[in-house]
Amino acid sequence: MRISFIGSGRVATKLAQALYGKHQIIQIISPNINNAKKLADLVHADAADDFSDIQSDVDLVVIAVSDQAISDVIQKLHPVLPETCIVHTSGSTGLDVLTKQHARSGVFYPLQTFSFERVTEWENTPLFVEAAERDDLNLLTELAKKLSQRVYQYNSAQRLSLHLAAVFACNFSNYCYDMAKQIVDAKQVDFSLLYPLILETANKATQNDPRLMQTGPAMRGDLNILQMHKAMLSADRREDLAEIYQLMSDGIENRQY
């Protein structure tokens, strides 16, 4: 399959590298030509920074840009690639954003957090596909199966629920790690001492119902500890963390265990 990418960020980079070797990556198009060239060099593709330079002899175009840019991109792509299957990689953007402009539209969404510095384990990464046409759905499903053992045909509403849940499970939890590091850094305490706790918490959440694994002073209703923690944060002039501590404690206290 001949595939081109719109975008040169983390999702585009990881996905293009994963597909390279299995398929031919034709072109990388990005407003930043240096970033486009950097990714293009990795997958032996051509680079461009203007849609007028897009190559039309491709089987699939993957839009891997910010959610707010997808609508603008499909408007530029449709006139030059009216018969080509075009997909986006967003978890929170509906298929209709593409189908309003383009008939052969689809979604190819990897439920994973990507970093340039880390290797992605594609075999265990859930991939979600959706398409306006049955033939394209089959095409995307087969493409996904070459990367992952976990491929699902989910609609836009289901995918959005996963994306929202992922924000809590990934982005918010990582910010909790960041807040924890801020707290111990202020007292010159080694953050790595928390690593076993972090890993055990993640393991329990993936092997059991997280609700049943909840522990801590808020779950126990230990008011003395809760007040002491909030007082410590206030004394350190971390009212931002104190507010988050209170909101999360309230949520735990109000949850039925």
TrEMBL record:
It comes from the Bacteria. Keywords: Oxidoreductase. Residues 2-87 form the Pyrroline-5-carboxylate reductase catalytic N-terminal domain. Pfam families: DUF2520, F420_oxidored. Gene3D superfamilies: NAD(P)-binding Rossmann-like Domain, ProC-like, C-terminal domain. InterPro entries: 6-PGluconate_DH-like_C_sf (IPR008927), DUF2520 (IPR018931), NAD(P)-bd_dom_sf (IPR036291), P5C_Rdtase_cat_N (IPR028939), TM1727-like_C_sf (IPR037108). Residues 126-250 form the DUF2520 domain. Signal peptide: none annotated. One of its GO terms (molecular function) is oxidoreductase activity. This is Pyrroline-5-carboxylate reductase. It comes from Acinetobacter stercoris.
